[in-house]
Amino acid sequence: MKKLFLTLLTSSSLLLGFAQEATVFRSGADGYASYRIPAIIQTKAGHLMAIAEGRVDHAGDYGNVDIVFKISKDEGKTWGPLQKAVDYEKLQAGNPAPVVDLLDPQYPQGRIFLFYNTGNNHEGEVRKGKGLREVWYISSTDAGTSWSEPQNITAMVHRPNQPDINPAYQFTEDWRTYANTPGHAFQFISGPNKGRLYIAANHSAGAPDRNGKDWQAHAFYSDDHGKTFQLSDNIPFAGTNESTAAQIGDNAVYMSSRNQAMTPKTRIISRSNDGGQSWKETLSDPNLPDPVNQGAVLSWKKGKNFILAHINAADADNRDNLTLKLSKDQGKTWYFQQQIAKAPAGYSGAYAAYSDIVKIGKHKIGVLYEKNNYEDIVFTLVPIR
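Now predict its structure.
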């Protein structure tokens, strides 16, 4: 495949005082009608890996969907050629959730895990019990040059009641739809669960509820570098959908969830003090307005404490006003706030939708996000303090 370089765009980011945006994925390019659901990680070597769903025939969620990626070796200024990580033939492979395991002594160079879901019917039909979502991962020990064979972990992290398809899928919980976090997963870097791989997710259970309350967020995690997985407790808030999580203390987790019940139109925030196994509190956060959309979180340790970063479309009505916030107190207050993208006057549609973030050095965050009615997935660098 001919090597592609990014087109650097003059954009609102220049006016906001940070780097130019670079287009990473553009609808219609490289054989895909649309690209959606961005995720981004940094390898141990410092290279960036931008991941997305490559939708072959159309922009819809269901159909012939692959998982594709590009690599940048210069902090997102230029990107290499499009590469394919997962192809589930004519069916769907999506919801990419990557994480770099930096703490497995067997792989000192770091091992990338890429969790994803497959599906054999539209989400609405799966929600009715007419179809199946499964959970898989592949891994790479050479920064994406090659990938392992897919591992099906559905029986460990999902609870479908479909024994006719697989005898192991006989669960009384009757989970139907299933989705990993859209965006990166994380690894505990300290505390009693140091090394734990942690992946936020959500599912629907039982018959569909017209108010969206059959949805519920949860997580799954591994304490043995991907050999086995366990489920967390469900988030105790009916309607919690797409979720993202980060470490905020040696044994504490912060989870930010989309509210599919739509009232209130804010992020639903949950905190755990036992490594993300159960939840000590769940609440609607009025400081995080949200138009029923995806968001992303990220954390890093500074001294003895964690800095938490949160990004979402901070608008109760539209997928717009993409805003990055930083907190020193586990997301209770925000000491830094930066608008990343805002639609021009008179704009109609989703100007800035799904996003993901990555820490680069001490004073920069990379933002990968869907822009301009899902036409492009772009990257920009944001200086932080």
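The two ends are 40 Å apart (CA to CA).
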